[in-house]
Design the sequence.
C-alpha cells in the first residue's frame, strides 16, 4: 500500500492518522498560532484576527 501523505486540493484535506485515513474539509489555519477562527489572507499568508492585531499594532 502506498503512503498517501497530506494532500490539499479543492478544499479537501486527506491524511493518514495511524491506521485511519482522515478526510475533512480544509480550513486555512493561521501560520502563527494555527487558529482556524477569523483567518484572513495577509500578503499571501493566512493569519487570524488576533495575530493580525499583534502585527499591525507594532
Ligand atoms: Zn494567529
Sequence:
Amino acid at each position: 500500500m502506498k503512503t498517501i501523505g497530506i494532500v490539499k486540493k479543492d478544499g479537501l484535506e486527506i491524511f493518514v492518522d495511524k491506521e485511519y485515513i482522515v478526510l475533512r474539509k480544509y480550513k486555512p489555519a493561521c501560520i502563527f498560532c494555527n487558529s482556524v477562527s477569523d483567518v484572513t489572507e495577509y500578503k499571501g499568508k493566512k493569519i487570524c484576527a488576533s495575530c493580525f492585531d499583534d502585527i499591525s499594532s507594532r
Observations:
- The radius of gyration is 15 Å.
- Residues 7-56 form one domain.
- The chain has one domain: 7-56.
- The first helix runs from residue 49 to 56.
